[in-house]
Amino acid sequence: MASRLKETKGKVKEVILVNVCQKGPLEEGNLSQTNFPGHAVSVMSDPRDLSVYIGINKEDPNKGSASEPFKAVLNITVHDFDFCDAYNDLALIELSQNVTESASVPICMPSEDLQLHRVLYASGAGMDPASPKTLADPYQLARGQQVVAQKFYAVEDLWHMILTQTFSKLPMPGDAGGPLFQVDESEIHTLVGIACCGDDEWKSDIGW
After folding, report:
1. What is the DSSP string of 79-133?
2. DSSP letter at 171?
3. Average pLDDT over residues 101-112
4. Which of 63, 85, 89, 92 has the most other CB atoms within 10 Å of its CB?
């Protein structure tokens, strides 16, 4: 939770993310990106080196973006990060200005005692196996941003993971890193986790 995060004096010397999925087009500057499983996909150094893109729904941030990038990162905050472990490798960035609702949907941070809904939602812009591989779209990412509903399955306490079951769509590589959230009757969106693809060894109906 945000209240339990510890400050890093505005700098993360080296953040190595080892993930089974592609990292989305969020930062530029000191960022190396890969589309292949198991590779280190990000090295970040200073908040001033990051550019944030708002409204991206395609792989290439220079094509079809809803807004221009802006230098807007005040601080980077990490929680329980360990260079020797592939878990807890997330960092929060604090923006220096608000983002308009025309370019994004406001989302609330969860409370410690938040009760999870029976239906959760995940947002991602990963690959679509139904799309043809082309020179312009070799990784089948042309579908753009999508939001899919997921049925809450269980909480895995040991690894601090929320498991969900899919309805009709399965998360694919490239969808990881997006928000896992719930929506109440007042249309308030609350972040409950970070989405990631399911493990191939799990049952086929378990998604995030």
Report:
1. SS--TT-SSS--EEEEESSPPPTTT----BPPPTTPPPPSEEEEEE----TTSPP
2. -
3. 80
4. 89
